[in-house]
Amino acid sequence: MFTGIDTIIIRVRDITAATTWYTRHLGVEVVYDDEEQRLAVIEFPAGSTVTLWQIEDGADFVASSTYPILATDDAAAAHETLSAAGVKVDTVQETPGVLYFRFFDLDGNPLEACQVRED
What does residue 67 show for φ and ψ, rounded to 5 degrees? Predict the structure, then answer.
């Protein structure tokens, strides 16, 4: 019935600021934007997308409790890059075969970086 996930929506306070943050810090490309709906679809190099969608004027903002897990080949390097750029990052965690850490966008929405190791 379904062939996959089309996109994941992350609600943001300001679509312009959020789009700038995501493109600058995550190296994504905006592939679609809709000024009237105040949303932007960003695409990662592997082709998956996330939709940033501004909350309605006057609405209370609550950071998401659902978050995307982003694949990386080098969690330590990604952690260092984000940290050096002033992004709020948690410590790198390790479980058998996996390195990961959580980090947060400018609205406090969580994201996670995950490196699957084959050693």
Answer: -145, 155
Domain boundaries in the chain? 8-116
Q: Strand 110-116 to strand 8-12: parallel, antiparallel, or no bridges (unpaired)?
A: unpaired
The top-level CATH class assigned to 8-116 is alpha beta
- Quick: pLDDT tens for 8-63: 999 999 999 999 999 999 999 999 999 999 999 999 998 999 999 999 999 999 99
How do beta strands 110-116 and 98-104 pair? Answer: antiparallel
- Distance, in Å, from the CA atom of 95 to the CA atom of 27, rounded to the nearest integer, reads 27
Report yes or no: 32 and 41 within 8 Å, Cβ to Cβ.
yes
Q: Does the pTM of the predicted model rise above 0.90?
A: yes
Q: What are phi and psi of 72, to 5 degrees?
A: -140, 150
Residue 17: C-alpha distances to residues 4, 24, 46, 99, 117 (Å): 29, 11, 24, 29, 34
